[in-house]
Here is the input.
Amino acid sequence: MRQAAGLTGVESEQEARDRLTALLPAELKHVVELVAPVAGLGGAPGTVEDTAWAVQRLLEALAVQRPVVLVLDDLHWAEPGLLTIIDGISDWSRDAPILVLALARPELLDDVPDWGAGKRNAVAALLEPLRDQDVDELTRTLLAGHALPAAVAHQIRLAAGGNPLFVEQLLAMLIEDQQLGEDQQLGRNNTTHLADLAELAVPPTIAALLTARLDRLPPTERVVMGVASVIGQTFYRAAVTELSELLSEDVTGALRALLRKGLVRPYRTDLPGQDALRFDHILVRDAAYHGLTKDARAQLHERFARWLDKHTDGQAYDDFAGSNLEAAYRNRAELGPPDEATRRLGEEASARLASAGQLLLGADDQAGVALLTRALALHPDEGPGRWSIQFDLVDGLDRTGDLHDATELAESIRATAEAAGDVQWTTRGRLALASFRQQTAPDGATELLRQEAEEALVVFDRLGDELGLGLAHICLKEVASMSGRLAMMATESQLAADHLIRAGRNRLAQMYTSGTLLVMMVGEHPASQGLVQGQRVAATADGRVPRLNAWIAVAFCAALLGNIEEERRAREHAEQLEQNCGPPTPPQR
Here is the structure.
């Protein structure tokens, strides 16, 4: 994304934001805040819908100036939200000169077999292995035009199997095995030293080849590679120094050597103030990682999670820290029955992943469900901690349309909490089940939902459960909706939002607050109240849809009050947001 906008890896986040803003027309300046998290420029991610729209509008604006090529590598690692964003570009931006080139392993279509199917102007190409003449040409290129002895060239063709990475790494390992020196790169070698390479044993797989090459590195370089591999394909110089317990100058020297050998390369950082590098290929990282013992992996994963907590903004990196704690726990658990320290590690990993998953609900529900599912697997003991994760997962499954699994999970919460004598969680489970019954068995469900919600209010009020109170008022809002009682809908929505804010569920609260405004437009509330509330939501909402609802309400209420200037201003905001939303359904394929 940075490259598509002409940004460089050496700019600060603010400099990159300023350059990106300068590329856009005045009416699209606000898209920078939505695109920034995707482009690695900081900020909290918005909803998938908002982000997809912002990326689309950015690319279209850039395409007005010149054709744009957006290259996405390793798409098989993509979260569902990114696939949705790419879908939006191909569906909506057909008239703009934009070429999206996505590279992925076949596993992508194993996971999402229909992705990209049926789209106009879309072509899928399966890359075949390199032909023998292509392997020879690649070899000559790596040797700056020099040719290999015939026997060596033949052995490389047989061993590589048409895999270009295998060609590159095999040649590099064989040359290094001849001890040509670190200062002699592939493009500058004298091939007279290669005459005897045909006699060397060739590892049978790319993994074995990379492992053999890493085993030949000096000890300090092997240590640095191992530590870096725990951090990930992208890693940070300061973290490697602290985790390896090497001197800073030794780490710097090792990284320079690894850069010269083509095993790592400089990379833009996604952590403010941290220099970053990246493994040249994910398989290089995997080979280094698998060279570590499970005990070493566990220690390094846990220490890196602590390093993250010291150098980042806590909750914003819960998914990253939680994933490392999860890896530490699993590596320890595989070494033997978990002890108390290992169990505590699993519980901490679960809490961090659950926090990250809960924050994603309403923004990227599928990613949120995935994190919550992992968190649940790490928290086997029944009780409030597990029920809390399950309850958020119920919400996520409901949002993604998996009502069957959501209902089963809600029933599990109710049954286990009731057996344990926990009134709070029994009531939450009953409330969720009554809400789902409204969708699956509507006869008599509305009255049952009303009864459950009113009884829940008494329980949650006694317990001081703000989230529970918010959920109960949401259910009463649904009851009012079924009976067409607009004033009650508005009142219950606002009460729900107030409790949700106090419970720290701001994103969910905004949805109900903005919905209340539209109900107030046709209800019995005074226009002055709707105007003030609409202005407040428009100024504070972090989603495009809540802001759109708020400005529509402000315009309507201002017109009723005769405030022509405020009505005009609100209409301009609403029209801009409405225009940017695009039509309600994509064009026919």
About this structure: Residues 165 and 206 are 8 Å apart (CA to CA). The chain has 27 helices and five strands.
